[in-house]
Amino acid sequence: MGAQDVAARIEALRHEIRDADYRYYVLDDPHLSDSEYDEKYRELVRLEAEHPALVTPDSPTQRVPGTVAEGFEPFPHPSPMVSLNNVNTEEDFREWVVSGNRFLRSEDPRRYSVEPKIDGVGLELIYENGRLVTASTRGDGLVGENVTTNARTIRSIPHRLRGSDVPPWIAVRGECYCRKDDFVEFNRAAEEAGERTFANPRNFVAGSLRMLDSSIPAKRPIRYFAYALGGVRGASYATQAELLEALAGLGLPTIPETRVVADADAVVARYDALVAEREGLPYEMDGAVVKVNDAGLQERMGMRIRSPRWAVAWKFPAQRALTRLLAVDWNVGRTGVVTPRAILEPVFLAGVTVQHATLHNLDQLERLDLHVGDEVEIERAGDVIPKILRALDDRRTGAETPIEIPSACPTCATPLARAEGKVALRCGNFACPAQLKGHLAHLAGRGALDIRGLGDKQIEQLLREGLIKDAADLWQLSLDALAGLERWGPKSAQNLLDQLETAKTRPLDRFLVGLGMREVGERGAQILARAFGTLEGVAAATLEELLDLDEVGEALAESVLTWFGEDRNRSMLERMRAAGVAPTPVAAPSGGAFEGLTMVLTGKLEVLSRDEAKRLAESLGARAASSVSKRTDLLVAGPGAGSKLKKAEELGIEVIDEAEFLRRAGRS
Length: 668
Ligand code: IVH
Fold this sequence. Notes:
This protein is α+β, with helices and mostly antiparallel strands.
């Protein structure tokens, strides 16, 4: 084949494969057999391998790339990705209808689009001249994460739009989700292969989108539905129905169960029908989204700060089931709190088999008056762990037995103390293996150092074998010691050592999360890391310096001081440092409009909420502080600003208003 023929053949194959993907994933109407498809795919892979110069990012082969990202870039959305207000009952829904009338003339005909609320993860797709250029998660609504590489692996997301009416620029919004049957099958196969399983489809999808190695989501059954617009050039849509039709025409999958109905009564009827259809539909939904259909009316109704007035999420009632309480076991968490957990006779509820329920504390046990052997009603709302609503005490046979409350730690036998207003049981032994295990699991977890191959089982084993006594010991592990353990070999041992090596330089904020100080979650750790730069910096922070940080309250500040004040913590950090653990300092994102500036916000903001403004500033490199001092570089002052404004003026600090702030942030 000549060079031109090759190029033409490659294009033809791409066209056929895209078409086959579209028919399979969007229309649900395949026209090629699996083997015909595979044959074309393999030919394309081969030709591209022979002619690497002809590979383009929108080639179907690029859905299975081998790239590993370092992290996700922040992505400012072209317009805020709003969320919806919720209603739970028909009464609330009708109230929402009436409240919307204030913005409309009485003669306005109000049709509604009633759509399943897909229980997945929101994703924005931007197409330029018909080509997918970015995919981003919602983030805080203003700035999301750029997950394009992962999104490209989702086969129902077209790399190129179809049809003759492709607008030059369009931001499409929709939901990534996993079908119930695909989810069950994925978990089954994972379990069989001894791999990680997932609690529910939503977590599965959220985790997959945030994988750094995109070959992982490429192997997962994730799909997409488009349902809204983030902006468009060169086109306009008069109604939601017209928009959805246009999106479908562009080759995007839309939700088949969407209906446009004539009035509020018809919305209620359609909602009831969706509740009834719920079990039988292939995907999980957690409610209905009701949108005013007419775009002109939408415009007139307008927005609240974070949500449009013209749309509402009408949640489904939580699903309930009856089962039996078989036993209660007691778990010691990393802070030493001992919590009960109900073990239930397995029951299928809302798409998953439930075998456990949370029982928060002793108080709740007493309130429910639970007995082992009781028949109980449980409820599962959204993706939360099921809870027990009540015991059916009129069905007791007399064979039920009271729940025994342990007086000693189930792990280390230390006598338990009742703390926190007597609702929590606590094991006060810092060296309790269960607490240690909890600490280590937290440190190795995905929100912290993300040490793969160090799961609960491995941690238990290392503790049991006496190879580690605290987190610092992890970096003293040797290949020989690990490889000699039961179920380990040289390969898995080396893998863990490699993981530990990589973990040494994880970003400081993730390291701080991993230390497990009370009150210091993801956000708190980020604030500390940005403000003090290094671990030594955080360790040396004074109470005043901590309290000076925006969003840092007394509880967090005290917790940090207490943690670093404890000898055993300091010595653990010292041993980590000696072993080469050196968290990477977290610089504010670079290249932003406010890079390196210390900013204070004061007065009333009109477009953004305080929180949104702060996050926006931070995403563009600023450090947000709560009080004006010599170190302040910029004050954003809204109406009603008082003492901070005065002080800034005295100190000669630059003061701008919200409009100017938005302009500098590139938002107006
Ligand atoms: S519309 C103005 N439609 O529910 C339009 N959202 O808080 C904004 N969702 O974060 C969203 N199914 O991720 C819309 N058919 C649907 C939806 C839907 C699921 C999610 C979406 C959003 C949340 C609403």
